[in-house]
Amino acid sequence: MSMIQVEELIKQYDKAKTPAVKGVSFAVNEGEFFAFLGPNGAGKTTTISILTTTLAKTSGIVTIAGYDVEKEAEQVREKVGIIFQKPSLDLQLSAEENIRFHACLYGMYSYRPTFSFMPKEYKNRVMELAEIVGIGDAIFKPVKKMSGGMQRKLEIIRSLMHTPAVLFLDEPTQGLDAVSRRSLWEYINNVRKEHGTTVFLTTHYIDEAENVDKVCIINQGQVARCCPPEEMKKSLMRKEIILDAEDQMGLASELSELGLFHKKDDVHIIVPYQDSTAQEIISRLKTKLTVLEIKEPSLEDAYVEYLNKTGGTAA
């Protein structure tokens, strides 16, 4: 079944001339890694806020794990974990106290006044997650004395404590260093494999969405495209072979004789291709090459090109 189902979702803010979300529809299957991308102001945050029960919709159908996000909000919250883009921590508490209150509110454990009184299972999980995201030494430190990056890591721990069926990641690695980013993604991928967790990602680091199962681009409040990354790259962009030779004019002439479209940048000759393989093209050339580079389009390349074509602004 679909773990997330959105049908004709509309959100009209008071006094706004047009809806922020205009009939958005998409589905996310159980265990799927789903990326929701779009420029600033496209409707991403509004949609996510509705999905996570923090904002009421104007109309449409939205369900998480079969539960209606408005009529059965409590059941939805039990199924989801959320890493918000904006911090939602109590700065007056320690890092561990923030986690403990969260875990107890979710009904995972009965509340105990100190960490030492909590069950062994709780203590082991907190310390395991703290080590994974890199704040093991600061887990009992007051949150107000932690850096922004450390607070981000704390929110990640809190969202993963109850092993949610659906994990919403709204800019999850913002403020994290490269090592912490890698550790987090390794852990999330392991969680997906072990528990079949559905992951819903929004990010400005488009490379983080390179290996998702499905990408959904929202632009100007509407779903512009929803498909696997490879399909998006194939439909929007061509692959390229970058070539050069001591006899550049001779190389260009040979390409023309072979009927291979090519163009020249400031230095090299570029041969776009789609249906053939790079090897098939190169094997036909007799001119001795001095430069040979095969350029595969990235998801970010395709995303930027799509927004440029549709009048959006990448962000």
Automatic annotation (TrEMBL):
PROSITE patterns given in the database record: ABC_TRANSPORTER_1, ABC_TRANSPORTER_2
SMART domains: AAA
InterPro entries recorded: AAA+_ATPase, ABC_transporter-like_ATP-bd, ABC_transporter-like_CS, ABC_transporter_ATP-binding, P-loop_NTPase
GO MF terms held by the record: ATP binding; ATP hydrolysis activity
Protein name per the record: ABC transporter ATP-binding protein
Keywords, sorted A to Z: ATP-binding, Nucleotide-binding, Transport
Lineage of source species: Bacteria, Bacillati, Bacillota, Clostridia, Peptostreptococcales
Pfam families according to UniProt: ABC_tran
Any coiled-coil regions, as ranges: none
Family to which the UniProt record says this protein belongs: Belongs to the ABC transporter superfamily.
PANTHER family named in the record: ABC TRANSPORTER ATP-BINDING PROTEIN (PTHR42711), ABC TRANSPORTER ATP-BINDING PROTEIN NATA (PTHR42711:SF5)
Occurrences of domain ABC transporter (ranges): 4-245
